[in-house]
Amino acid sequence: MAKVAGFSPVIEDGSVTAPSLSFNSRPGTGFYLLSASGGFGFAQDAVNIFSLGATGQLTLVPTANQLIIQPGGSGNQFTITATNPAASRTLTIPDSGGNTSFFMRKGSSTNDAASAGDVGEQLATNVATGSAVSLSTGTAATIITQSLTAGDWDVSGVVVFKPGASTSITIWAAAISGTTNAVPAIIGQPTSNEVLIQQAAAAFVPGANDLCVSIPPMRVSLASTTNVYLVAKSTFSVSTLAAYGSIRARRIR
């Protein structure tokens, strides 16, 4: 029998199985072609390492821990199936919704931070009470400017109003805005990447008590790098009023 690169090719034809071609360095090892299934595979010590069937199914380590990748039921779908453990899942790509892209990512198991551009990326900026921005009654003022890159973000904020001892207040409001020193016209309804949260009461003097307005997470969807603004606005009289706070943004997708 001829030798090829140190291997012994064996061509055999049985009455039951279709012809196969094997290249073996020793029994039970090597590369083989299976014309019966129209595919090929690779074996090591009589155990299949992988095989590719005629239908496009790729099987890796065909044992209890095998991973099978094969065409799906229709169109351009294909499925990935892990057979161990028994409760494993089958992933079909694209899914029934016709998605054209996908990713699978395990959640973090420690107190690290997502990299810039990754889902879960977080940005946060704070202005401390000692750096509070002075306000004029009825005039919106930017407390923080936050730059966000293109993507889909959840943005939230907190504005804390710091009155003088005798300041009388009737309205205090906070906003996530797309325009510096401006707030949206509609209260409490997120629109066009903006939202305004406002509190109002009969005139009162809070004295040394700071007043807080929280803005819950809202969607900010951006096609390019854009500034968003944490803005404060209040109607007050008699004395002074300043504001400080924080803004937080987390990339959702």
Tell me about this structure.
- The chain is an all-beta fold.
- The protein has two domains: 8-93; 122-251, Jelly Rolls, CATH 2.60.120.
- The chain is built from no helices and 18 strands.
- The strands form three sheets. Strands 1-2-3-4-5-6-7-8-9 form a nine-stranded antiparallel β-sheet, with no helix packed on it. Strands 10, 11, 13, 16 and 18 form a five-stranded antiparallel β-sheet that branches.
- Strand 7 (67-71) and strand 8 form a beta hairpin.
- Mean pLDDT is 77; it is low at 1-29 and 32-36.
What's this model, at a glance?
The chain has 253 residues and is an all-beta fold. It contains no helices and 18 strands.
**Could you please say which CATH topology of the largest domain applies here?**
Jelly Rolls
What is the H-and-E element order? EEEEEEEEEEEEEEEEEE
The tally of domains stands at 2
Span between termini: 61 Å
Oligomer: single chain
In spatial order, strands of the major sheet run 1-2-3-4-5-6-7-8-9
Helix content, binned percent: under 10%
Task: Please tell me what the overall shape is.
Answer: elongated
Helix count, per DSSP?
Answer: 0
In total, how many beta strands? 18
